[in-house]
Amino acid sequence: MSTLTQSSAPASTPIVKPAAQIRSWKIPITFGSFAVLSLFLFVVLGRGLRGELSTFRLSEGRDLIQLPEVALPTFATGVFVAVVLVLMAAASAWLVYRHTKIPIVLTILFALLFLVGFLAWAASGSTIPVPGLLIGTVTLSAPLIFGALGGVLSERAGVVNVAIEGQLLAGAFSSAVVASATGNPYLGLLAAMVAGALVSMVLAAFVLKYLVDQVIVGVVLNVLVIGLTSFLYSQVLAPSANLNSPDVFPRLNVPFLSEIPIIGPVLFRQTIIVYVMYVAIALVYFGLFRTKWGLRVRAVGEHPQAADTVGINVNRTRFIAVTLGGVISGFGGAYFTLGAVGAFNKEMTNGMGFIALAAVIFGQWHPIKATLAALLFGFATNLQNVLGIIGSPVPSEFMLMLPYVVTIFAVAGFVGRSRAPAADGKPYIK
Amino acid sequence: MSATTTTAPAGRDSRMDGSERWIQTLRDITGGSAMISVLAVLFALVVGAILIAFTNERVQETAGYFFSRPTDLLRAVWDAVAGAYSALFQGSIYNFRATNFLTAIRPLTETLTFATPLIAAGLGVGLAFRVGMFNIGGRGQMLIAAGAAGWVAFAVELPAGIHLIVAILAGLLGGAIWGGIVGLLKARTGAHEVIVTIMLNFVALYLIQFLLRTPGALQAPGSNNPKTPAMAATAVFPDLFGPRYNLHAGFLTVVAATIFVWWLLSRSNLGFQFRAVGQNPSAARVAGINVKNVYLYAMAISGALVGLAGINQVLGTVTTGFGSGIDAGIGFDAITVALLGRSKPWGIFAAGILFGAFKAGGFAMQAAEGVPIDIVVVVQALIVLFIAAPPLVRAMFHLPTPGTSRKPKIRAVKTRQTNEVVAK
TM segments (chain A) (predicted)? Predict the structure, then answer.
C-alpha cells in the first residue's frame, strides 16, 4: 500500500504530505512483531513441548490417493520457524532501508511459515486433520464470500453497502420458508436471491432516489430485517414447524477432481452452494474487470460526473449493480439454512455480514482479494473448531482471539489506507 | 428528537404581509422536520399494526369467513392492535390500571432505566460519527468497561462514594483504551476503523470470557459459572426514587455525559477540531489541525462514552454479577440511536429515551399480549428510515417542501458531511 500513497501523494496534496519519499517501515515492523510473537510462543512457551510430536494428517480415510501423515518435532519446528521469521523480518528491514520494494512472495511465505509454526505448536502431541481444517474453511467462508462479493459489486458502483447482514439474513429466512413450503430447496435458493435483491432495492431506492445517507440506510435495513425475520419467526415459524424444516443440500463429489490429494476434498466435495460460489467469484471478477458493463460500473463508482458526460445513466447503473449485489448476498444467506443448519433461527447470521463488510475493505474492494480476506476469516472460525477438539497449550480464548488480532495487525501493517472507490458513499446529483 | 431536527426558519422577507407569513409558517411546520418526525413515528406504528394484525391467530381465523361476517375480522384486528399498543404505552409511560400514582408512573422510570445505557452508547457512536468515523465496536468497548468497572466494584474495598467513583473511572478508562486503540491505529497506520472495531469486539469478548472463567480475575470465588460475584454495595449506583423503582443514579451520569458532549462539540476548542475533521479532514489538516491526534482523542472519548453504558449495566442494572452477555446488544442499538438523534447530543438523549420506552413497553407487550418484542425493533428501524428520508414522507403525505429554493443545496452538503463516515 505504501506504493499507492507514494504515487498519489505528490499529485494531489504535495504540501501536507511530505512523506512521499520516506521509507515505509510498516511491513518490517509488522514482520518484526510476528517474529517476536513466534519467538515467544514457539521458543519460550514451546520449551515445555520438547519431545512432543505434531502430526499433520494430509488425507482423509476415503481418499483414493493416501498421503502419509507428516510428524514434526514440535519444539524443533517452532525454533526453526521462529529463526526463519526473524531472518525474514531482518531481510524486509534491509530491503526497506535500501528503498527496494518488498516482494509479495516474501509476505506470503512469511504468513505461511507463521501458520505452519503456529499449527505445529498448537497441535503438539496430537494430530491436525489438514483436509478437514481446509474443507471447513471453504464451507464456513461461503456466506462471507457471497456477502463480500455483493458488497464489492455495490461499492464499486459507489453505494456503500452496510446492509450485507440484512441481505444474508433475508436470504436465510426466505430460503428456509420457501424451501420448506414447496419442498424444493432449489426454489429456496431462488427465494433467497429475490429476498436479497429486495433488501438492496430498498437500499438503492432510498440512496439513489431520496438521497438518504448510505450508511444510515444500511444500518437501518439491517435492524429492520433482523426485526422482521425475528418477529415472523416467533409469530409464524415457531408455532408451525413445517414452515421451517427445509432439506439441506448434500455434499456432491465432483468425479476425478475430488480425488486430487488435499485440493480435491477441499474444493470439490462441497455442496452446490459452494460450487455456485466459485462461479460467482469468477463472474463478478470477469464482469467487473473484463466487460463493458463492469467498466461502466467502476466509472460510476469512481467519477460519476465523467460517466454521465459520456452518456452512462449513473443512477440506473448503480441501481442494477446494487441489486445484483443483493442477489449474490441473498444467495449466500441460503447457506445458513439450506447449506448448514437446516432451519431458520433468530439472528442466525450472527454478525457475519459485518465480517463480510470487513472482508470487502480488507480486500480493497477487489473481488478476488475480498474472497481471500473472507477465506482468512473462515479459516479463523474453523481453526477455533478444530483446536477446540484437539485442545491447545494456551487457554482456548487466546487461540480464538488470535485470528482477529492477526487481522488487526495485517490491516495496520499491510493494507493500511485502503482506498475506496472515489465516489463510494456519495450521491450523484445532476 | 423532533426538537433537534427543526429547521431554522427560512429567511423570510420582511415585506411579507400577515397572511403570506402565516401561510409560509404553515408550510414550514407541515413540511418541516418536526412534522416529518411525527409522521414517521405514526407511519412506523401503522406498519407495525399491520404486522401485528396479519400474524394474529384470531385475525387469521376470522379472515376465513370475512365475507359472511366482516365485523368479526375488524373487531379481531382492532383487539390485536389496540391491545398491543396499549400494552406498549402502559409498559413504557403510564399504567392506567394501577391503583395509585406512584405505581402508575413506574413504567416511565423503567423507560429511563432502559434509556440510560442507550443514551451513553449512542453519545459515543454519535461523537465518532461527528468526526467522520463509524464506531461499530460498542460491544467490545462496553465489555471492557464493564469488566474494569465490575472488577473494581467487587474486588477492591473502598469507602462508599469513593468506591463508586473509582469504579466509574476504571470503566471509563477501559472503554477509552479500547476505543483509543482504534483511533491510534487509524492515525498511525491508516487501518480502517470499521475493521478494527469489529475485530476488537471479538478480542474483547474472548478476553472477558477468559477472565470470567479464571479464578482470581473476574470469576466469582467458589463458583464454576462464567460469572462475576455481586458488586459491593459501596460501588453500586443508588436508587434515585427509592427501592420501588429500578431507576438508578446512573441516569444522572448519562445526563452529565450529554451535557459534556454538548459542551465538547459546540463550546470547546477540541470539539471544533472534531467537527472540522468530520466535515473535511484535508481542509482541517491544511488549517493546522492535527488530524491524527483528533482521531485518537475522538475514538478514546467515544470509547469512554460507550464504556459508560457498560458501567451503567454492571453498577446500575445488573448488580448481582454479570456474564459475557452483559452488553445486551446495546453497542449495536446505539448506532440506531445515534442516527435517529442525528449525532447531536440532545437529539441522542431524546432518541435514547424513545428507544428506552420502546424497550420497556416491548417487554410489557410481550408479557401481556404475546406479541414478540421484535416488532419494536421493526418499528424503530422504520422510524429512523423515514426520518432519514424526508422527501419520501413528504411524497407519501403530499406535504409541501419547505424553503424549496434552498433545499437541494442543503441536502447535498448534509449528505456529504455524513458520508465521510465510510467514504474514507
Answer: 27-50, 70-97, 104-124, 130-152, 159-180, 186-208, 215-233, 267-288, 319-342, 348-365, 372-392, 398-416
Domain with residue A261: its CATH number is 1.10.3470
A408: in domain: no
In a domain, A404, yes or no: no
Half-sphere exposure of B151 (CA within 13 A, CB side): 20
Instruction: Assess whether A72 and A172 both reside in one domain.
Output: no
Count of domains in chain A? Answer: 2
Whether A288 is covered by a domain: the verdict is yes
**One domain, residues A96 and A219:** no
Give CA separation, A292 vs A25, A155, A287, A312, in Å. 39, 18, 8, 11
**Integer CA distances (angstroms), B157 to A305, A316, B163, B232, B249, in order:** 65, 65, 7, 8, 21
Nearest CA-CA distance, residue A154 and chain B, Å? 13
pLDDT 10s per residue in chain A (430 long)? Answer: 343 434 443 444 444 444 445 667 778 888 888 889 888 888 887 777 777 788 888 887 777 777 888 888 888 888 899 999 999 999 988 988 888 887 878 888 988 898 888 888 887 778 888 888 898 899 999 999 999 999 999 999 999 888 999 999 999 999 999 999 998 999 999 999 999 999 999 999 998 988 887 877 888 899 899 999 999 998 888 887 788 888 888 888 888 888 888 888 888 888 999 999 999 999 999 999 999 999 999 999 999 999 999 999 999 999 999 999 999 999 999 999 998 888 898 888 888 898 898 888 888 899 999 999 899 888 888 887 787 777 666 677 887 777 678 778 877 876 655 677 888 878 888 7
CB contacts under 8 A, B 331-370 vs A, are 335-336, 339
User: What pTM was computed for the model?
Assistant: 0.82
Give every CB contact of residue B241 below 8 A, 6+ residues apart in sequence.
Answer: B109, B247
CA distance B19 to B16: 8
**How close does chain A come to B181, measured CA to CA in Å?**
10
Parent domain of A113: 23-125
Q: Kindly state whether residues A158 and A52 are assigned to the same domain.
A: no
